[in-house]
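Supplementary notes (optional reading)

For those who missed the lab, this is the record we used. Protein: Pyridoxamine 5'-phosphate oxidase family protein. Length: 152 residues.
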Amino acid sequence: MSPVDRSDTPTGGAPDVRSPDGRGAEECTREQSLELLRQTAIGRLIHTDDAMPAVTPSCFTLDSLGEVVIPLPASWRADLMDGEVVGFQTDRFDEQTLRGWTVLVVGRSRLVTDPVKIAGLRHQGPLYWGHRPTRGYLSIHPELVTGRWFGS
Protein backbone atom coordinates (compact mmCIF):
# COMPACT_ATOMS: atom_id res chain seq x y z
CA MET A 1 0.00 0.00 0.00
CA SER A 2 1.44 3.40 -0.94
CA PRO A 3 1.51 6.26 1.60
CA VAL A 4 -1.24 8.18 -0.17
CA ASP A 5 -3.58 5.22 0.19
CA ARG A 6 -3.36 5.45 3.99
CA SER A 7 -6.17 7.91 4.68
CA ASP A 8 -7.82 6.31 7.70
CA THR A 9 -6.35 8.71 10.30
CA PRO A 10 -6.36 12.51 10.73
CA THR A 11 -2.75 12.67 9.54
CA GLY A 12 -3.51 10.82 6.35
CA GLY A 13 -2.23 7.61 7.89
CA ALA A 14 1.51 8.29 7.95
CA PRO A 15 3.42 5.02 7.95
CA ASP A 16 5.35 3.97 11.04
CA VAL A 17 8.75 3.61 9.39
CA ARG A 18 12.34 4.44 10.17
CA SER A 19 14.52 5.61 7.34
CA PRO A 20 18.16 4.50 7.07
CA ASP A 21 19.21 7.89 8.48
CA GLY A 22 17.22 7.17 11.67
CA ARG A 23 14.98 10.23 11.48
CA GLY A 24 11.79 8.30 10.81
CA ALA A 25 11.13 9.85 7.41
CA GLU A 26 10.18 8.35 4.07
CA GLU A 27 10.44 10.22 0.77
CA CYS A 28 7.34 10.45 -1.39
CA THR A 29 7.30 10.24 -5.16
CA ARG A 30 6.22 13.29 -7.15
CA GLU A 31 2.83 11.68 -7.82
CA GLN A 32 2.32 10.85 -4.12
CA SER A 33 3.30 14.40 -3.17
CA LEU A 34 0.78 15.91 -5.60
CA GLU A 35 -1.91 13.59 -4.22
CA LEU A 36 -1.11 14.78 -0.69
CA LEU A 37 -1.54 18.38 -1.86
CA ARG A 38 -5.09 17.50 -2.87
CA GLN A 39 -5.87 16.45 0.73
CA THR A 40 -5.65 19.95 2.21
CA ALA A 41 -6.69 23.49 1.27
CA ILE A 42 -4.29 25.65 3.30
CA GLY A 43 -0.54 26.07 2.98
CA ARG A 44 2.21 28.68 2.95
CA LEU A 45 3.35 30.79 0.00
CA ILE A 46 7.11 31.33 0.22
CA HIS A 47 8.18 34.49 -1.60
CA THR A 48 10.11 37.73 -1.21
CA ASP A 49 8.78 41.07 0.00
CA ASP A 50 11.07 44.07 -0.55
CA ALA A 51 13.96 41.63 -1.15
CA MET A 52 13.35 39.92 2.20
CA PRO A 53 12.11 36.33 2.66
CA ALA A 54 8.40 36.10 3.45
CA VAL A 55 5.95 33.32 4.22
CA THR A 56 2.22 33.94 3.86
CA PRO A 57 -0.53 31.48 4.91
CA SER A 58 -2.75 30.91 1.88
CA CYS A 59 -5.73 28.92 0.74
CA PHE A 60 -5.07 27.10 -2.54
CA THR A 61 -6.25 24.57 -5.03
CA LEU A 62 -4.43 22.22 -7.36
CA ASP A 63 -5.80 22.75 -10.86
CA SER A 64 -6.27 20.18 -13.62
CA LEU A 65 -2.74 20.88 -14.91
CA GLY A 66 -1.23 20.12 -11.50
CA GLU A 67 -0.44 23.77 -10.80
CA VAL A 68 -0.92 25.33 -7.36
CA VAL A 69 -3.37 28.26 -7.63
CA ILE A 70 -3.53 30.86 -4.86
CA PRO A 71 -5.89 33.83 -4.52
CA LEU A 72 -3.98 37.07 -3.97
CA PRO A 73 -5.05 39.67 -1.40
CA ALA A 74 -6.38 42.90 -2.87
CA SER A 75 -3.61 44.79 -1.04
CA TRP A 76 -0.76 42.97 -2.88
CA ARG A 77 1.03 44.27 -5.95
CA ALA A 78 0.30 41.09 -7.87
CA ASP A 79 2.31 42.23 -10.89
CA LEU A 80 5.49 42.06 -8.76
CA MET A 81 5.01 38.30 -8.30
CA ASP A 82 4.50 37.50 -11.98
CA GLY A 83 7.42 35.41 -13.24
CA GLU A 84 9.12 35.06 -9.85
CA VAL A 85 10.43 31.78 -8.43
CA VAL A 86 8.37 30.99 -5.34
CA GLY A 87 7.70 28.08 -3.06
CA PHE A 88 4.54 26.62 -1.62
CA GLN A 89 4.45 24.23 1.33
CA THR A 90 1.64 22.39 3.01
CA ASP A 91 1.58 19.65 5.57
CA ARG A 92 -0.50 17.69 8.00
CA PHE A 93 0.83 16.49 11.34
CA ASP A 94 -0.64 14.86 14.43
CA GLU A 95 0.96 16.67 17.37
CA GLN A 96 0.41 13.75 19.74
CA THR A 97 2.05 11.05 17.62
CA LEU A 98 4.40 13.36 15.65
CA ARG A 99 3.38 11.52 12.50
CA GLY A 100 2.39 13.20 9.26
CA TRP A 101 3.67 14.57 6.00
CA THR A 102 4.95 17.71 4.30
CA VAL A 103 5.09 18.71 0.63
CA LEU A 104 7.12 21.54 -0.92
CA VAL A 105 6.54 22.86 -4.44
CA VAL A 106 9.04 25.23 -6.04
CA GLY A 107 8.43 26.85 -9.39
CA ARG A 108 7.92 29.97 -11.43
CA SER A 109 4.75 31.90 -10.66
CA ARG A 110 2.49 33.62 -13.12
CA LEU A 111 -0.65 35.66 -12.83
CA VAL A 112 -3.77 33.91 -14.08
CA THR A 113 -5.08 36.06 -16.93
CA ASP A 114 -7.50 33.74 -18.76
CA PRO A 115 -11.00 35.20 -18.10
CA VAL A 116 -12.64 31.75 -18.29
CA LYS A 117 -10.21 30.30 -15.74
CA ILE A 118 -10.64 33.33 -13.45
CA ALA A 119 -14.43 32.99 -13.59
CA GLY A 120 -14.14 29.31 -12.69
CA LEU A 121 -11.81 30.07 -9.78
CA ARG A 122 -14.15 32.77 -8.46
CA HIS A 123 -17.04 30.32 -8.64
CA GLN A 124 -15.32 27.17 -7.27
CA GLY A 125 -12.50 28.55 -5.12
CA PRO A 126 -10.11 28.67 -3.54
CA LEU A 127 -11.36 31.47 -1.33
CA TYR A 128 -9.01 34.12 -0.07
CA TRP A 129 -8.31 33.87 3.66
CA GLY A 130 -11.19 35.63 5.43
CA HIS A 131 -13.32 35.36 2.25
CA ARG A 132 -12.32 38.87 1.19
CA PRO A 133 -12.15 39.88 -2.47
CA THR A 134 -8.99 39.00 -4.32
CA ARG A 135 -6.82 41.00 -6.65
CA GLY A 136 -6.44 37.93 -8.81
CA TYR A 137 -4.85 34.51 -8.77
CA LEU A 138 -1.27 33.32 -8.84
CA SER A 139 -0.42 29.99 -10.44
CA ILE A 140 2.75 28.08 -9.57
CA HIS A 141 4.07 25.60 -12.10
CA PRO A 142 5.58 22.77 -9.99
CA GLU A 143 9.14 22.44 -11.31
CA LEU A 144 10.39 20.81 -8.10
CA VAL A 145 8.06 18.76 -5.90
CA THR A 146 9.32 17.06 -2.75
CA GLY A 147 7.33 15.26 -0.10
CA ARG A 148 8.12 13.32 3.05
CA TRP A 149 6.20 11.15 5.45
CA PHE A 150 7.29 11.36 9.08
CA GLY A 151 6.78 8.52 11.52
CA SER A 152 7.88 8.05 15.10
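If you only remember one thing from this example: The chain has a mean pLDDT of 81.
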